Amino acid sequence: MTYLLWALPALAVIAAIASGRLDTIKAAVLGLSIAVPVAMFTGPAAFGGVQLVHALARGLWIGATIAPYILGGLLFWQIAAHGAAAPAGANVAGLQATGASRIARRRLLFFACFLVGPFAESATGFGVGMLGTVTLIRRLDIAPRPLMIFALLSQTMIPWGAMGSGTMLAAAFAHLPGSELGLYSMVPVSLLMLVWLALFWRTAREAGLGASARECAHEALWIAAGLALLAPATAWLGPESALLATYGPLIVLRYLMDVRPDRRAAWATARRAWPYIMLIAVLVATRLLPALKHELQALWKIAPFSDLPAWSPFFHAGSWLVAGGVLTALARGQGHGLAQEARSACKTGRPAILAVFLFAMMAEVLSGAGISRACAQGMFDALHQEAVLATPLLASVFGILANSGNAPNSLFMPSQIALAVQAGLSIPAVAALQHVSGTSMSLFSPVRMSIAAGLARGIGQERAVYRTLLPYAVCCLALLLSGAIGIVAAK
Question: What is the distance between the alpha carbons of residues 441 and 469, in angstroms, rounded to a whole number?
Fold first, then answer.
């Protein structure tokens, strides 16, 4: 009975979202309102008013370190996009023409799904990757159903989405450096890429854009090269800017190889892409130059909690996104619209930011009352090391329902870390499994599906797309479960 009470906040959130009657924000408010009395009256650790205020303050601080990624990313993308007709690196009008060769159209399709889409999602999040992908391939005369799948495939690198804000939040709950969690996340993400490639090949073939085995191998090599470069970039730069720094040059290289533009066309594309080029250069410099990195981190550092991330406004990637957006607007003579752009970014980002704050406070309340650790202890007593096998199942289900990895990470990451400690398992590996399961499986979320349907003009075809995706979802879950088995076996 006690364990049921402890699970009540999470169960309430799951039921509220699954019912469709409450959105994520209202479900989070419900979960937090239940978590407080459960923690105060049933928690195994002393948890009174002082402890409650401390836990809520910790949750607010975690949210405050994540919010700049969201607001800064939205502001920068809105301003930068106003000066370009399409996302960075997307000047591919020659390939978009319906008379282009099949191989040229196929290469544009791959370019949009696996390069431009992830880059756009990393720069901003909020489904911008889907928008960038659909914008590029809409003129290829692809039917709505496969177009929806191609839009969803832009989300395959979602742990690095929105400047890696979800990964940084997960790292905060796991008490790990963001770069370490991002690096460990490379393993399950790389395994899942096998499923995404298979889905891409099948869907492209059904859309009339099939390719030879040689072209498929060429595509697989591009994916492998991207992942191989992303791993050291994540270790050196952190998840905030690693994908931008890696995929930006890959987009340029692929564009030059596929389009082969003349000097005039190449210069026109560079002029549209200059805000992204400058942003990437600055972010890389602030991470790779030791003296500059140290000065920016020390210039103004706020760390109210020793075991939570500090905030250095002159080093934080979100601050540079805001600065990049402002400077871009001023350079283009659009300074008069900055206030409107800021209001628009706040309006768009408000739901995600509120969700981060609410779920972070809920997680800290349950953790502060000792409930997360006690639940992990109970699972270990019942299942021993095999308790970690439930990690991908719980995270995947909740990630699909919540359309985000932030909710399952907030609710389950503290208990998963406690379980890893109790079982003697690798803490970064368990944290990465939890994180990737929630974030990557959110690709199958009904919310994300509805966005894809709207962009692809496929409203009403969601059920048919789900039937196509079901075996691939099962394969993803099987790979994640095999990862859990591997963690247990590696002890």
Answer: 12
Backbone angles phi, psi at 86, to 5 degrees: -155, 170
Of 58, 55, 50, 54, residue with least CA distance to 303: 58
Query: How close are the terminal C-alpha atoms of the chain, in Å?
Result: 32
Alpha-carbon span 231 to 186, nearest angstrom: 7
Cα separation, 38 vs 273, in Å, equals 52
Alpha carbon of 402 to those of 15, 81, 395, 396: distances in Å? 11, 28, 10, 10
Distance of CA 236 to the CA centre of its chain: 19
pLDDT tens digits along 242-283:
998 899 899 988 988 888 888 887 787 777 778 878 887 887
Contact 129/120 with Cβ under 8 angstroms? yes
Give, to the nearest 10 degrees, the angle between helix 462-489 and helix 178-206.
140
Q: Of 37, 30, 67, whose CA–CA distance to 165 is shortest?
A: 67
Tens of pLDDT, residues 218-237: 999 999 999 999 999 999 98
**What is the identity of the amino acid at 139?**
R
The single residue listed with the structure tokens 């990195």 is 293
Q: Which residues contact 16 (CB under 8 A, 6 or more apart)?
A: 22, 26, 27, 30, 31
At 302, is the secondary structure helix, strand, or coil? Answer: strand
3-state helix, strand, coil in the chain (%, to 5): 80, 0, 20
How far is the CA of 324 from the CAs of 65, 145, 193, 281, in angstroms?
A: 19, 37, 32, 11
Task: Return the sign of the alpha-carbon dihedral for residues 228, 229, 233, 236.
Answer: positive
User: What is this structure's pTM?
Assistant: 0.77
Distance CA 462, CA 287 (A): 42
Query: 152, 67, 119: which is closest to 349 by C-alpha?
Result: 67
Contact, 429 vs 416, CB < 8 A? no
- Counting runs of H as helices and runs of E as strands, what totals does the chain give? 22, 0
Query: Do 349 and 78 meet the contact criterion of CB atoms below 8 Å apart?
Result: no
Instruction: Give the tokens for residue 125.
Output: 């999040």
DSSP per-residue codes, 44-70: SS---HHHHHHHHHHHHHHHHHHHHHH
Nearest to 195 by CA among 214, 220, 160, 158: 220
